Amino acid sequence: ASCTASSVSCSGTTDACCVPSNGKLVLSIQWLPGCAPDATWTLHGLWPDTCSGTEPSKTGCDSARQYSSIQSLVSGSPIYNDMITYWISYKGTDIASYDAFWVHEWGVHGTCYSTANTACVGSNGADVQKFFGDALAVRKTYDVYSALWNAGIKPDGSTYSTSAMTSAIQAQYPGVSVQYLCTGSYVNEIHL
Questions:
Q1: Which residue in the list 55, 104, 109, 191 is annotated as catalytic?
Q2: What domain range is 88 assigned to?
Q3: What is the CATH number of the domain that holds 145?
Q4: Structural domain includes residue 47
Q5: Tens of pLDDT along 65-112?
Q6: pLDDT value at 52 more than 80
Q7: Is residue 42 included in any domain, yes or no?
Q8: Which tens digits make up the pLDDT trace of 10-32?
């Protein structure tokens, strides 16, 4: 595919290997104190959504690419260390727990990420490495921890409103929409 920086999703004229054919991407990050490195939000996932803002499928988009292990496809790759640091599971701190989480994220979301189709990147795990590598890059681009910290919003036990958090995130990343998932009065997940 011949991709340009001006390729626009949802235009109907762009190669699906250049920009996601579903149109939109949701970056989901989670706050896992005690499980994750200090001073970081970890990845829950990178979720392709349709141009109208809905999920393309709750079961994935390509049953032929449902893998039983992601760890085996990425363990020798440059992204592996970042995955075991920034894409962890709240269900356990062992590789098996992480792998089960990665298998789920790949099966439901990665198979719907058109730029990682084997026709675009090849096979032998290149599709998996493309999806997870791109998701890690998006997480790094949108450093929510720093955006909040720069606005004086710190994980120090203080209470902050979601409107203050949204203002801080949007000051750093104009135009980004922000949604929150909470447990009680605690924000534990943010969707951009």
A1: 109
A2: 24-154+171-181
A3: 3.90.730.10
A4: yes
A5: 999 999 999 999 999 999 999 999 988 889 999 999 999 999 999 999
A6: yes
A7: yes
A8: 777 778 888 888 878 999 999 98
The reply to whether 191 belongs to the active site is no
What distance in Å separates the CA atoms of residue 39 and residue 179, rounded to the nearest whole number?
Answer: 20
Q: Is 99 exposed, middle or buried (0-12, 13-18, 19+ CB in 10 A)?
A: buried
Quickly count: other Cβ atoms within 10 Å of residue 112's Cβ.
24
**Burial of 157 (C-beta count, 10 Å sphere; 0-12/13-18/19+):** exposed
The rounded distance, in Å, linking the Cα atoms of 10 and 150 is 33
Q: Tell me if 166 is assigned to some domain.
A: no
Report how far apart, in Å, the C-alpha atoms of 100 and of each of 54, 61, 69, 89 are: 25, 19, 7, 9
pLDDT at 63: 93
Token pair of 87, please?
């894409």
C-alpha closest to that of 18 among 125, 130, 101 = 130
User: What is the number of structural domains in the chain?
Assistant: 1
Q: Of 55, 105, 189, 191, which residue is the catalytic one?
A: 105
Instruction: Please provide the DSSP assignment of 6-60 as one string.
Output: T--TTSS-S-TTTS-TT-EEEEEEE--TTTS-TT-PEEEEEEEE-TTS--S-SS-
Domain membership flag for residue 139: yes
Q: What angle do CA 112, 118, 29 make, to 5 degrees?
A: 40
Among 44, 55, 104, 191, the one annotated catalytic: 44
Residue 104 is a catalytic residue: no
